[in-house]
Amino acid sequence: MATPIKNAHARNLDCSEAEWAARQELAACYRVFDHLGWSESIYNHISLKVPGEDGAFLINPYGLHYSEVCASNLVKIDIDGNTLDGSPFPVNKAGFTQHAYFHRHVDWAHAICHTHTTATMAVCSMEGGLQPVNFYACNFIGKLSYHDFEGVTVREEEGERLLANLGNNRILMLRNHGPVILGRSIGEIFIQHWSLQRACEIQLATMAAGKPVMIPDEVVAVHQRDVGQVRLPGGPGKADFDAWVRIIDRTDRSWRD
Fold first, then answer.
1. Domain Class II aldolase/adducin N-terminal, which positions (predicted)?
2. How far is CA 129 from CA 83, 106, 152, 219, in A?
3. Angle at CA 106, nearest 5°, toward 166 and 83?
4. Number of domains in the chain
């Protein structure tokens, strides 16, 4: 049997235990996203700050599919674009420009993901964006920001507008493009993406079936007030993410390499 590219590109790294733990968590996230159908060939990106190192974060090697990402082939770069771990892989400039700007200016944004799933891109491309038409959508009403499409995100000066349009929210819907989700942990961005994906899927299905029933603002407010009562301990999304890691572990544990 041929050696998978993910193992062929594994490297022996001299890094701290904290960085290795972060690498494994991020690698697992790439595999979970792929398992759920959220990958986009070799494109898109998820990044994670390196614990204890200002300005350093991990991101996927440009050219590998999410199913090929493992802990050792993630690329460690700084917010100026310098490779810090001797990786032979390049980094997608669109990923660096977007993620580096947020990592530089948003101190709580330890983890960031950007995807092109069909459902989220479709809703980003709709006039009015996400609407209060289902349970999951209620989580996000009044908590999403929008940014008009300017082409592929490779120009540093667009970062200023991305940050300004994000405002005090944690999700920036890039119109005609897809969402950027920022959070304090991998678990947080995972559960936010999972819930947003479900909200968008259900909105599209509802609108295809007929005229949706809009949920009143006062009911949305009650939902957002009470939704925290069903969260498990450990931080937002941790239990959810851990469950999906157990699932991918049963089929392929090479992300741990």
1. 24-204
2. 37, 24, 20, 19
3. 115
4. 1
Q: Do the bridges between strand 171-174 and strand 144-147 make them parallel or antiparallel, or are there none, so unpaired? A: parallel
Q: What is the pLDDT of residues 24-73, one digit of tens each?
A: 999 999 999 999 999 999 999 999 999 999 999 999 999 999 999 999 99
DSSP helix/strand/coil, 133: coil
CA angle 4, 10, 12 (to 5 degrees): 155
> Cβ(127)–Cβ(209) under 8 Å?
no
Question: How many CB atoms sit inside 10 A of residue 79's CB?
Answer: 17
CB of 29 closer than 8 Å to CB of 238? no
Q: Which residues contact 199 (CB under 8 A, 6 or more apart)?
A: 123, 130, 134, 136, 137, 139, 140
- The answer, as to whether pTM is greater than 0.90, is yes
The CATH number assigned to the domain holding 219 equals: 3.40.225.10
CA angle 136, 36, 199 (to 5 degrees): 15
Q: List the domain range (segments joined by +) for residue 113.
A: 5-256
